[in-house]
Amino acid sequence: MSNITNVKNGIELLVTLQLALELMDEYNLKGRAKNTANMFKDALEKDIMQNYHRVYNEDPEILTNSLNFKNQMIVDIASLGENDAILLADYIRKFMENIEEVREKKVLIFDKLI
After folding, report:
1. 86-103 burial, b if ≥16 CB within 10 A, otherwise e?
2. In the chain, how many H helices and how many E strands?
3. Angle between helices 3-26 and 32-58 (to 10 degrees)
4. DSSP state of 103
5. Which of 24, 44, 48, 111 is exposed most, by the fewest CB atoms within 10 A?
6. Which residues of 37-48 are buried (b: 16+ CB within 10 A; e: fewer)?
7. How many CB atoms within 10 Å of residue 20?
8. What is the DSSP letter of 27?
9. Residue 14 CB: number of other CB atoms within 10 A?
């Protein structure tokens, strides 16, 4: 696996796990599950931080913006009720199936919801 791929995957894991830890704090979870998650996060940070800093030093603004966008998407998705999450999942699937067209047109059109 290349360093860039390793950094990308490591950062995604780190952000996702950090969000999970913050949620655990909101729910006042304690004990073994939280301790295990913290140990995993600490080990992951040690494993990826050197590559993370290298990418960050190359373009901190892009990396920061990317992490902020991903974090906001996670927060937004987590706030949805089940019915809305199902609708969003269908929308995302259709978006991914047509991503080249969306990129080319640089416009996203909602035709209809069925």
Report:
1. eeeeeeeeeeeeeeeeee
2. 5, 0
3. 140
4. H
5. 111
6. beeebeebeeeb
7. 16
8. T
9. 18
**Both tokens assigned to 48:** 């990826």
3-state secondary structure of 21: helix
Q: Any idea which residue has 């609708």 for tokens?
A: 87
Token couple for 31: 């004990």
SS (H, E, C) 39-79: HHHHHHHHHHHHHHHHHHHHCHHHHHHHHHHHHHHHHHHHC
Amino acid identity of residue 102, one-letter, is V
Task: Extract the tokens encoding 34.
Answer: 């939280």
Q: Tell me the C-alpha distance between 113 and 111, whole Å.
A: 7
| Amino acid at position 25, single letter | D
pLDDT for position 98: 85
pLDDT of 81 reads 93
Residue 5 has pLDDT above 60, yes or no: no
Q: Which two tokens stand for residue 41?
A: 């996060």
pTM of the model: 0.60
